């Protein structure tokens, strides 16, 4: 099975068994799930999204 990309538009991470789900989409971190609502500029996985 191919790895799926995080649903956050700017994120480059793949999701895995530790992924978080919201509205049927998979995300790699809580920051991505919330659309970086806290102002964070990254997901904590060495990727500058947000």
The ordered H/E elements are EEH
Sequence stretches where pLDDT stays below 50 over 5 or more residues: none
Radius of gyration: 10 Å
Category from helices, strands and their pairing: mainly beta
Integer tally of domains: 1
Mean pLDDT score: 89
Helix content: under 10%
Tell me the overall shape: globular
Strand content: 5-15%
What kind of sheet is the major sheet? 2 strands, antiparallel
- Total beta strands: 2
Task: Report the end-to-end length measured between terminal Cα atoms.
Answer: 27 Å
Strand order of the largest sheet: 1-2
Number of helices: 1
Tell me about this structure.
It is globular and about 25 Å long. The chain is built from 1 helix and 2 strands; from the N terminus they run E-E-H. It has 50 residues and is mostly beta strands. It has one domain. The model has no long low-confidence stretch (mean pLDDT 89). It has one helix at 30-33, and strands spanning 20-22, 25-27.
């Amino acid at each position: 099975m191919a790895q799926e990309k995080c649903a956050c538009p700017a994120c480059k991470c793949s999701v895995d068994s530790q992924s978080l789900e919201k509205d049927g989409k998979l995300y790699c971190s809580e920051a991505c799930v919330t659309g970086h609502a806290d102002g964070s500029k990254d997901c904590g996985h060495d990727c500058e999204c947000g």
